[in-house]
Write a structure and sequence with these properties.
The chain is of the alpha/beta class and 554 residues long. The protein has 3 domains: 7-190, 3-Layer(aba) Sandwich (Rossmann fold), CATH 3.40.50; 239-422, ANL, N-terminal domain (Rossmann fold), CATH 3.40.50; 427-551, ANL, C-terminal domain (GMP Synthetase, Chain A, domain 3, 2-Layer Sandwich), CATH 3.30.300. 35% of the residues lie in helices and 21% in strands. The chain has a 5-stranded parallel beta sheet with strand order 4-3-5-6-7, with helices on both faces. A 5-stranded mixed beta sheet has the order 12-13-14-15-16. The chain has a 4-stranded mixed beta sheet with strand order 2-1-11-10, sandwiched between helices. Strand 17 (367-370) and strand 18 form a beta hairpin. The radius of gyration is 24 Å and the shape is globular. It starts with 6 loop residues before the first helix and ends with a strand.
């Protein structure tokens, strides 16, 4: 076919070259084997039919059309249909407060909303959808939409000639997670999507025989890239996860060869193994030559990770001990770095060159430098066109020489590997006049099996403090034992910090932090302002207690 300038062009390539190859596997609920496979031909047929319907609506060219759903096959089909019909897609995270849903839909001027596989929280989220906005429900979507997907495509013929799209025009608006305020819409071009995917395909040597499990929110730029764009460029098989409850079964079904996760899940996998066998005993067994190899294979097989050849970790720092443990099993976790504004095409660890605490070197097509205040700045083919309808904010981060200001502070070692020190906007000042970068301290504090999440704060006080959310196991454990372990951990953390960074105490949060209650972003990052505002009334009592471990008020 002609030059593959857009993701649609790549999808049509696979439709024509291998029409009967299975592209996506969608679980339908009700058991391990209840799945629906979609070939490239079936995928493009449904996308073309929906595109024909959208084109028949006679919307203005390049209208915005939103998608709100958990990851599923029809998410990809809807995205392709929107592009084929000449429009721009707007992902909406499937877990958002009502006001953020309203902001994204209204700010983007979305004309229609696809609603898909969602949790009961949709009853709360839909209050943010304008009453007059047309909605189309996916087959696994909730009732109450204006139209249902199957009914629409059944009444349409396929759109044989998709609207011609320029590589440099806007393909999608991806709204940031909003960890530091109202989400901004990053405009990503077709060229950025294609070039980043082509470069990564070559870098990782991804091939059609690979398998990928998609479960991180596809509304996020990282999963959009790895779970949608990369498979459409490389032509490999995508499996979707059913739910958190079935996740291990989903992994075992997919047996992925390419797998990306966040540190929290890598830690959960490790803790699950330790619950069945104490780490000291396991370490001894792994050192026995023949038995160790058998046990390693068995552990990875039980996790569904025995076929993985490329394993990635991102969104937050991976504890050094966790990375070392997986390496001992023969699975090297490659940490990476990127952001919505550069379609995540920035840095990745090279195999055999992983250094704990570092996110690797820039890709060959990326340039990285440190600006004022050690701010990380990158020039990359994934760079956004700007923030939608926000020219001043765009000008503030897009420099004249093509570099993007990331807002992150970093350092670079002798091999060009990047270390993230923290966000420039997160730095706060103590009453002693010392500036604290909380991210580095949080990375140390969260590196404990009893701690699930943490936030370091303390602006205006003599010393900073940490607020922690305990793991599920710790919540159900003996409170006296947990308190002693936390106090010992605090002492070890403080031993490695300069005097002005030492934490005066750690506070145990009673509330469970989640995206639903606003403490976390949809990508599971802490919303620092929300946490600090919520726990501020406790500060005076906490600081005056002179105890190493304190608790949230009942």
């Amino acid at each position: 076919m002609a030059e593959r300038r857009t993701i649609v062009d790549w999808a049509i390539h696979w439709e024509q070259a291998f029409p009967e190859r299975v592209f996506m596997t969608q679980p339908l609920g009700g058991g391990y084997g209840n799945v629906r496979n979609y070939t490239f031909r079936e995928t493009l047929d449904q996308a073309r039919r929906m595109a024909n319907y959208l084109k028949g609506l006679a919307l203005p060219a390049r209208s915005r059309i939103a998608i709100c759903s958990k990851n599923c096959a029809h998410w990809v089909m809807a995205d392709l249909a929107i592009w084929m019909a000449g429009h721009v897609s707007v992902p909406v995270f499937p877990i958002l407060p009502t006001e953020i849903v309203r902001h994204v839909l209204e700010h983007s001027d979305s004309r229609l909303l696809f609603v898909g596989k969602l949790d009961p929280i949709w009853q709360q989220m839909k209050a943010g959808v304008p009453a007059d906005m047309p909605t189309i429900s996916f087959p696994l979507g909730p009732d109450g939409a204006s139209l249902r997907w199957n009914e629409v495509v059944a009444g349409q013929s396929p759109l044989l000639q998709p609207v011609d799209r320029s590589p440099d025009e806007m393909a999608t608006i991806i709204y940031t997670s909003g960890s530091t305020g109202v989400p901004k819409g990053a405009m990503i071009s077709f060229r950025s999507m294609v070039e980043c995917s082509v470069h990564l395909t070559k870098f990782l040597r991804v091939r059609p025989e690979d398998r990928y499990l998609s479960y991180l929110p596809v509304a996020h730029s990282m999963e959009r890239w790895l779970g949608e764009c990369l498979p459409l460029v490389a032509g490999h098989h995508v499996f979707f996860a059913e739910s958190l409850d079935t996740f291990l079964c989903d992994l075992q079904r997919a047996r992925p060869t390419v797998f990306l996760s966040v540190p929290r899940l890598w830690v959960k996998f490790q803790r699950g193994v330790f619950e069945k066998m104490p780490p000291q005993k396991l370490d001894l067994i792994l050192k026995i030559p023949i038995l160790g190899r058998i046990v390693k294979r068995k552990i990875l097989s039980k996790l569904g990770l025995d076929q993985v050849r490329i394993a990635g970790s991102g969104s937050a720092p991976l504890p050094a001990g966790v990375g070392a443990w997986y390496r001992s099993l023969g699975l090297e976790l490659l940490e990476g770095y990127g952001m919505t504004e550069n379609f995540n095409f920035s840095h990745l660890c090279r195999p055999g060159q992983v250094r704990a605490g570092y996110v690797g070197q820039p890709y060959d097509q990326v340039q990285c430098r440190l600006g004022e205040g050690d701010e990380i700045q990158v020039r990359t083919p994934g760079c956004m066109m700007g923030y939608f309808k926000m020219p001043e904010e765009s000008a503030a981060v897009l420099l004249p020489d093509g570099f993007l200001r990331t807002g992150d502070r970093g350092s670079i070692d002798e091999m060009g590997r990047l270390k993230i020190v923290g966000r420039t906007k997160e730095i706060f000042k103590t009453s002693k006049g010392k500036y604290i970068a909380p991210a580095m301290i949080e990375n140390l504090l969260v590196n404990h099996p009893r701690i699930e999440l943490c936030c370091v704060s303390g602006a205006g006080f003599a010393q900073p403090h940490g607020i922690v959310q305990l793991s599920d196991a710790a919540r159900n454990a003996d409170a006296v034992v947990v308190e002693k372990e936390l106090a010992d951990h605090l002492r070890r953390v403080n031993d490695g910090l300069p005097s002005y960074e030492k934490l005066q105490f750690v506070a145990v949060a009673k509330s469970v932090w989640s995206p639903e209650n606003g403490f976390l972003t949809p990508t599971m990052k802490i919303r620092r302002s929300c946490i600090e505002e919520t726990y501020q009334p406790n500060n005076e009592r906490w600081y005056s207690s002179n105890k190493p471990v304190v608790y949230e008020d009942n």
